[in-house]
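How it folds:
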Amino acid sequence: MHYTYHPSRVCSTQIDLEVNEGVITNVRFTGGCNGNLKAISKLVNGMRAEQIEEKLLGNTCGPRPTSCADQLAKAVRAAADAEKKAV
């Protein structure tokens, strides 16, 4: 299932991903720190939403209370929840 998330309080403006039985693939960020976000996308590819949340939830960026990684953790939770509701 394709899922689009609009992060807040970070440089990226959109996160697109696929979720299939709780497994996250094809993460793509629009905006943000291109190299870092490409690397994060590769690292989380094939992981379960819970694993991504465990590693990334709560990460901050400078003085901000969130980061693109934290927003990704929130996006995968929202995607996994949406997938469960769709079944």
